[in-house]
TrEMBL record:
Keyword Chaperone found: yes
InterPro entries documented for this protein: LolA/LolB/LppX, OM_lipoprot_LolB
Gene Ontology BP term (one): protein transport
Species in which this protein is naturally found: Caenimonas aquaedulcis
Record's signal peptide: 1-24
Chief location category: membrane
A GO cellular component annotation in the UniProt record: cell outer membrane
Family label: Belongs to the LolB family.
Name recorded for this polypeptide: Outer-membrane lipoprotein LolB
C-alpha cells in the first residue's frame, strides 16, 4: 500500500473510531448498545491541498476505550485491522503492524488532528454530543445513516456512515 493510500486508510479508520462506527440499529435498544458489534459502510472526504476520499466496509467491536475495527474492500477482503486498549493502539495491514500509544495518537497520526472518538459513540446512540469544530447530523440515524462535518481544525472533512440493516 502506498504512503498516500495508507494515510487515507488510516484517516478512514480514524474517522470510524471517531464515528464509533456502527451497525444498523433496529430498535432504540440497539442504539443504546455501546459495545457493538456495528457494521456497515463509511465514506470519508478530506478537503485540503490534495483532497482525499476513502470508502470501505467496516466491522467494529468494543467501545471508545477498547475494541477492534476491521476495514474491508467491496469484495470483502480485509484492508486493515485496528485494535486498541487503554495505553495502546495497533494498525495491521498487508502483513505490517504499527503501534501507537493510544487511539488518539493513531487518529492524530492518520488525520493530522484530533477526532472526537468518544462523541462518535454518543452520536451512534442518538446523543448529539457537541464537539468544537464538528457538526453531527443524527436526523437519519433511525434509518441507519449518520453524517458529521468538521470545519476546524483544518482540513475540513465529511464523514458518512451507512449502517447495515
Amino acid at each position: 500500500m502506498t504512503g498516500a493510500r495508507l494515510r487515507v486508510s488510516l484517516l478512514a479508520a480514524s474517522a470510524l473510531f471517531l464515528a464509533g462506527c456502527a451497525s444498523a440499529p433496529k430498535t432504540e435498544r440497539a442504539l443504546a448498545q455501546d459495545e457493538g458489534p456495528w457494521s456497515g459502510r463509511l465514506a470519508l472526504q478530506v478537503e485540503g491541498n490534495q483532497s482525499q476520499s476513502f470508502a470501505a466496509g467496516f466491522d467494529l467491536r468494543g467501545n471508545a476505550a477498547s475494541g477492534e475495527l476491521t476495514l474491508s474492500n467491496p469484495l470483502g477482503g480485509t484492508l486493515a485491522v485496528l485494535s486498541w486498549a487503554p495505553g495502546s493502539a495497533m494498525l495491521r495491514n498487508g502483513g505490517q503492524t504499527r503501534q501507537f500509544e493510544s487511539v488518539d495518537a493513531l487518529v492524530a497520526h492518520a488525520t493530522g488532528s484530533a477526532i472526537p472518538v468518544a462523541a462518535l459513540f454518543d452520536w451512534l446512540r442518538g446523543t448529539n454530543t457537541p464537539v468544537p469544530g464538528w457538526q453531527a447530523n443524527l436526523s437519519l440515524l433511525p434509518q441507519g445513516r449518520l453524517s458529521a462535518h468538521r470545519t476546524h481544525p483544518q482540513p475540513e472533512a465529511d464523514l458518512r456512515i451507512a449502517l447495515e440493516r
